[in-house]
Each structure stands twice: as C-alpha cells, then as structure tokens.
Amino acid sequence: MTSREHILSSIKNVELLPVPLPEMPQQHLAARLENFVLCATTNGSDVIQIDSLERLSSILTERFQGRSIASSIIPSNIHVDVHTPIEVIEKVDVAVLSANFGVAENGALLLKEESMMNRSLPFLCEHLVLVLPENKLCYDMHEACASVPGDDYVVFISGPSKTADIEQSLVIGAHGPKTLTVALLR
C-alpha cells in the first residue's frame, strides 16, 4: 500500500459526528433596515424612503424629466412585456420594478420573473429603480434562498453594474444600469 492509499484509507475510516447548525441571530426590522441601507449604499445604490407610489412617481418625473420610463407600478411612457423586442427595450432609459424582497446582510434585492416585465429589462435599461416594502427584508442569503420557489426564474441585484480592470479602475454602468435606486416603501 502506497502512502497515498494509506492516507485515503484512513480518511475513509473516520466517522464524523453530525454538528448542529448555529442559531442565526434574529434582527428586529429596524436593525435589518439599517443594515440593508448601509450595504445597499456601499454597493453604489441610491436609497430613498417613500410613503407612496405617487410620491415616487413625482420624484422620478423630476429626476428623469423627458426620459423613457417603463414600469408596471407607476405611470410610464413605454410599454414592455415578455414579447417586447430587444430593440424597444434597449431604448428604455428608466425601468421601475417591484422587488420581491431584500437581503439585509448584503443589500441585494430579489426579482422574480413576473416582476421584471421582461427578463432583459433590468439589465438593458440605463437607470433601474426597484421598489421594496420595508417589511420585506430577509436577514441573510440563507433565509432569502429558502424563500425562493425552486422552479422560478429569479435574479439577485446588488447595486448598479460595475467592472474593474487590472489597473483597478472602477467603471460603473459598463454593462448594465448606470444607477440603481432602491425606493423603500414605508
């Protein structure tokens, strides 16, 4: 028996006892919200708190005056659905979509396919706005992934598009939205 075979044989004979997972600390909503905002802004997102979708609509009208807006939750000037050709989606300046939930540990937001209007919209628009009710925050990715049905198409989005080359020059918006605004709905 070679030394390699001896080592592998010894490893196979080791019996490991099961170890219970540690208890996850539970955060109150206020702590989750604070952590989410910190992580989201660190990721490059702009976080605003709103009381209504009407308030969001007025903020976006002022911020993106004259731009093409696609949305299923506020008034918009461009229609997008699953059959919309890419040529039309590429002309969308601002997409306003509803996030299904957020993750406090990293500032990511989950979008299910039915919330996207079209799978390519959150990636081809110039500016992405995701609306999230404040009470829809998971503590961590474990809790978030456990909440996702196995057969749904979902995507986690964490900040605007970013890339960096070997010279460590950060470029935002190189291959996706230039900005991500998270609108927390009270």
Describe, in plain words, how this protein is organized in 3D.
- The chain has a single domain, classed as NagB/RpiA/CoA transferase-like (Rossmann fold).
- β4 and β5 form a beta hairpin.
- The longest helix has 14 residues.
- It has 186 residues and is an alpha/beta fold.
CATH architecture: 3-Layer(aba) Sandwich
The share of residues in extended strands comes to: 15-25%
Helix/strand/pairing category: alpha/beta
Ends distance: 68 Å
Give the strand line-up of the largest sheet: 1-11-6-3-2
Number of domains: 1
Please trace the helix and strand order, writing H or E for each element. Answer: HHEHEHEEEHHEEHEEEE
Kindly summarize this structure in a few lines.
28% of the residues lie in helices and 25% in strands.
Labels describing this entry:
about 190 residues, five-stranded parallel beta sheet, about 25% strand, single chain, alpha/beta, four-stranded mixed beta sheet, 7 helices, Rossmann fold
What's the helix and strand layout?
Blueprint: H1 3-12, H2 29-42, E1 46-50, H3 53-63, E2 69-71, H4 86-89, E3 94-98, E4 101-103, E5 109-112, H5 113-116, H6 121-124, E6 127-133, E7 137-138, H7 141-146, E8 154-157, E9 162-164, E10 170-172, E11 179-185
Parallel strand pairs: 1-11, 2-3, 3-6, 4-7, 6-11
Antiparallel strand pairs: 4-5, 5-8, 9-10
